[in-house]
Design goal:
This protein has a seven-stranded mixed beta sheet, sandwiched between helices. The two termini are 29 Å apart. It has one domain: NAD(P)-binding Rossmann-like Domain (Rossmann fold). By secondary structure, it is of the alpha/beta class. It has eight helices and seven strands; from the N terminus they run H-H-E-H-E-H-E-H-E-H-E-E-H-E-H.
């Protein structure tokens, strides 16, 4: 009998059960994280927990899923759209990272912009981390790449991230999604074709890691 995961089962076959049993923590559900959530949810990930601290504004509507609900808490909106996920409306800080228990999760996906928090996350859970670099100011999704943090190039956020990691003596590796495309504007102009593709690439990488585990 067909159900919402019939096509996923055709693709993943016996490995689909790995996705059903997986637990993913997604940090940030904005222009990148929202599309990552959508893909993971539709693919059949059994347990998804999201964390964000923000409400939707009208300027989010060019790139963020659920953003028609202006003024609504992003986490609460996502819980409406994606029945069964867990969500917490809170600010991700280095102190929160230090105190939070990441152990139950198979993978942690970082789709936030706050640099001190990103560094703290890498320090604590690099062994199961996938991190997004900068998707703003870019127009060509075909330039998106996957590599470890130390091999990124041409991405301003990744450069800053590497610098901050070196300052705290961090030397481990973890995978990131980045783009070396040169900026096309001043400020944080954005195009959903790129930010959404960042999120979809994160979800693809996460699923492949789970299937290969």
């Amino acid at each position: 009998m067909d159900d919402r995961f019939s096509r996923s089962r055709l693709l993943f076959q016996d490995d689909f059960e790995k996705l059903q049993k997986a637990k993913i923590l997604l940090l940030g559900v904005g222009g990148v994280g929202g599309f990552c959530l959508d893909a993971l949810y539709r693919a059949g990930i059994g347990s998804i927990t999201i964390i964000d601290f923000d409400t939707f504004e009208i300027t989010n509507q060019n790139r963020q899923l659920g953003s028609e609900a202006i003024g609504m808490i992003k986490v609460e909106r996502m819980k409406e759209l994606y029945a069964g996920i867990e969500g917490f409306d809170l600010k991700i800080t280095p102190q929160w990272v230090e105190e939070f228990d990441f152990e139950p999760f198979d993978l942690v996906i970082d789709a936030i912009d706050d640099m001190p928090a990103k560094v703290a996350i890498a320090q604590k859970v690099s062994h199961k981390l996938i991190s997004s670099m900068g998707g703003a100011k870019k127009m060509d999704p075909t330039k998106i790449e996957i590599t470890n943090i130390w091999k990124t190039h041409g991405d301003g956020l990744a450069k800053k991230f590497r610098y901050e990691l070196k300052k705290v003596g961090f030397k481990k590796k973890f995978d990131v999604v980045f783009s070396p495309e040169l900026p096309n504007c001043q400020g944080l102009g954005s195009f959903v074709g790129v930010t959404g593709s960042f999120g979809l690439t994160l979800s693809s990488l996460a699923i492949r890691k789970l299937l290969n585990s």
